TrEMBL record:
Stretches assigned to coiled coil: none
Domain Protein kinase: 1-190
Superkingdom, taxonomy of origin: Eukaryota
Protein name: Protein kinase domain-containing protein
Gene Ontology molecular function: any one: ATP binding
Organism field: Entomortierella parvispora
Classification via Pfam families: Pkinase (PF00069), Sel1 (PF08238)
SUPFAM superfamilies xref list: HCP-like, Protein kinase-like (PK-like)
Length: 486
C-alpha cells in the first residue's frame, strides 16, 4: 500500500492509510459521494461522459508516467465526487484481499500474472497463461468503458474515433493516454495543462490559423475538438471543413467522421450518397470499422444503396479477418438467420465464438443461448453458464433472462427460486417486460422472495405499460381481489 499512498493526482483516489481488526482490512481514502461510473452512467449527458473519459485518461497519464499499470479499469473502479469529478481507485488493494484487481509497477519488468475483469481484458491477455500487460492494456479497458457509456445511442464521430482506436486488436495501434487527452482537448491544451495547471490556451482563431500547417492526423483531432466545442464554441460546419481536409489526405477516421456528418446532416446538408462514398473510401484503405458499417448498409439495402448480399459479405469478412468484433457478430447473425446465405448454425457459432472471445457481451449471450438450447451443438449447461456469466458481467439482458431460467428449472444448477428472482430483477431494472412480469408474479405470490403485493403490482404495471397481456390480466385480477377485500 505504500506506493498507493504516495500517489498524488487530482483524478486518483487519495489513500491515507490502512487499519485492520481480527476480521477485516480497512483502507482509509477520500470520500466519493457520486458513487461509481457504472451506477451513475444512466444519468449522465454527453458532455459529462466525454469529460469523465478525459479525466480517466489524465489519471492514466499520471499512472503511466510513474510506470504503473492499473490493470482493472472499468466503471466500478471509476469513482465520482459530488460534482462528478473522476477519482480512479482500486490500486493494490485487491492483492491484499485476493480479488481480481491489482495495480503494479512496470519499470523494465514485464508483468505476467493474470488480473482484470472479463470483458475489459485486452485481446492479447485472453487465454494466455503468461499474459503480457502493458500500458496499452489499460487503454483497451478504457475503450470498453467508453463503449459501455454509449450502448444504444448515436455516437459523435470524435468519440467514435477515439473509442475505435482504443479497442484496436493491435496494442501498438492503440493511442497512449496522453494522445486520448490530446484527441479531445488538443495538443496545445495538454501542453498548457502541464505548464500552467488549469489555465487554457488557444482561441478558436488560433486554431484556424494553425490548421493550414497541420498534418491529416492533427487536422482530424482539431476537427474533433471543434465538433465537440472543446476549448472553443461548437462549430459543426467548421468541423466538417476540417474533417474534409483530413479525409482528402486519406485519413480513414476522418473519412468515417465525414460520412457520419453527411448521414445525419450535421454541419452540412444531409447526403446519404456522399456518406456512403466516404465510407467506401475508408473501407478501400482497409478500415475495419468502415468495412463493417458499409457491409451492414449493403446487407440492409439502406441509405439509397441497393441490397447486395455478396458485397455485404465480402466487406464483413474483410473486417472480421482483422478481428473487428462488430463484423464477427454481423456474420454470425447472417449465418444464423440465413440472410443472403444458406442458414448455417455451425458457421454462425464460429463467428459468435470469435466475437465472444473478443469480449462482445451480445455474442457471449448468444453463445450461452446456443449451448442452452442445443442449437447446432449438444446441450451443455456448464458451457452455457460460463458464457452467460461473462455476458451478465457486462449487464447483458438476454444473459440475465437465461440465467433466471436456469435457476427456475434447475438446468445445470440446483433449482433455486431466490436466485432466479435475483436475475429476473436485473433484467427487469433494464426494462425487459417479461422479467418485470416474472418479478411481479413472484412478489405477489411470495415465490423466491418475501411476499409484497404492492411492489409486485408495481412491476406488473410496468410490464403492462409495455404491452404485456398476461401482466394486464393479472393486474385486473389483483385489483378485483383488492375491491372484494375492502
Amino acid at each position: 500500500m505504500k506506493f498507493v499512498a504516495q500517489l498524488a493526482h487530482q483524478h486518483i483516489i487519495q489513500c491515507y492509510g490502512v487499519d485492520r481488526d481480527s476480521s477485516y482490512l480497512y483502507i482509509i481514502t477520500d470520500y466519493a459521494e457520486g458513487g461509481n461510473l457504472k451506477q451513475a452512467a444512466p444519468g449522465l449527458n454527453w458532455e459529462d461522459k466525454k469529460r469523465i473519459i478525459i479525466e480517466v485518461a489524465l489519471g492514466l497519464v499520471y499512472l503511466h508516467s510513474h510506470d504503473i499499470i492499473h490493470r482493472d479499469i472499468k466503471g466500478g473502479n471509476i469513482l465520482l465526487t459530488k460534482k462528478n469529478e473522476v477519482k480512479l481507485c482500486d490500486f493494490g488493494i485487491a492483492k491484499i484481499t485476493a480479488s481480481a484487481t491489482c495495480a503494479c509497477s512496470v519499470g523494465r519488468h514485464q508483468i505476467t500474472e493474470s488480473k482484470g475483469t472479463p470483458g475489459y481484458m485486452a485481446p492479447e491477455l485472453r487465454g494466455s497463461t503468461t499474459p503480457a500487460y502493458s500500458f496499452k492494456t489499460d487503454i483497451y479497458a478504457l475503450g470498453k468503458v467508453m463503449q459501455d457509456l454509449v450502448r444504444g445511442s448515436e455516437i459523435p464521430p470524435d468519440y467514435m474515433a477515439v473509442m475505435e482506436s482504443c479497442l484496436d486488436n493491435d496494442p501498438k495501434k492503440r493511442p497512449s493516454a496522453k494522445k486520448i487527452v490530446e484527441a479531445f482537448c488538443g495538443v496545445h491544451w495538454f501542453q498548457e495543462m502541464n505548464n500552467k495547471g488549469d489555465e487554457r490556451c488557444d482561441t478558436p482563431d488560433d486554431k484556424v490559423k494553425t490548421t493550414r500547417i497541420l498534418s491529416a492526423d492533427e487536422e482530424f483531432y482539431m476537427a474533433c475538438n471543434v465538433f465537440s466545442g472543446v476549448n472553443a464554441d461548437v462549430d459543426h460546419a467548421g468541423a466538417v471543413e476540417l474533417f474534409m481536409r483530413s479525409a482528402r489526405k486519406g485519413h480513414t477516421r476522418a473519412q468515417i467522421a465525414l460520412s457520419y456528418c453527411y448521414r445525419h446532416g450535421i454541419g452540412i446538408l444531409s447526403d446519404p450518397a456522399e456518406a456512403v462514398n466516404w465510407l467506401q473510401a475508408a473501407a478501400d484503405q482497409g478500415s475495419a470499422p468502415a468495412q463493417t458499417a458499409l457491409g451492414r448498409i449493403y446487407l440492409n439495402g439502406s441509405m439509397g444503396v441497393r441490397q447486395d448480399f455478396g458485397r455485404a459479405l465480402d466487406l464483413l469478412q474483410a473486417a472480421a479477418s482483422q478481428g473487428h468484433i462488430g463484423a464477427c457478430t454481423s456474420l454470425a447473425e447472417v449465418n444464423l438467420t440465413g440472410t443472403g446465405v444458406h442458414s448455417d448454425e455451425t458457421e454462425a457459432m464460429r463467428w459468435f465464438r470469435k466475437a465472444a472471445e473478443g469480449g462482445d457481451a451480445f455474442a457471449q449471450a448468444r453463445m450461452g443461448q446456443i449451448y442452452y438450447f442445443g442449437r447446432g451443438v449438444e446441450k451443455d449447461y456448464a458451457k452455457s453458464m460460463n458464457f452467460l456469466l461473462m455476458a451478465a458481467s457486462q449487464e447483458q439482458t438476454m444473459a440475465y433472462l437465461l440465467l433466471a431460467d436456469m435457476y427456475r428449472f434447475g438446468r445445470g444448477v440446483s433449482q433455486d427460486d431466490e436466485k432466479a428472482v435475483d436475475w429476473w430483477l436485473k433484467a427487469a431494472e433494464r426494462g425487459d417486460m417479461n422479467a418485470q412480469y416474472n418479478v411481479g408474479v413472484r412478489l405477489v405470490k411470495g415465490i423466491g422472495v418475501e411476499k409484497n403485493t404492492i411492489n409486485g403490482r408495481n412491476w406488473l404495471a410496468k410490464a403492462k405499460l409495455q404491452g404485456h397481456e398476461m401482466a394486464r390480466c393479472l393486474l385486473k385480477a389483483i385489483d378485483q381481489e383488492i375491491k372484494r377485500t375492502f
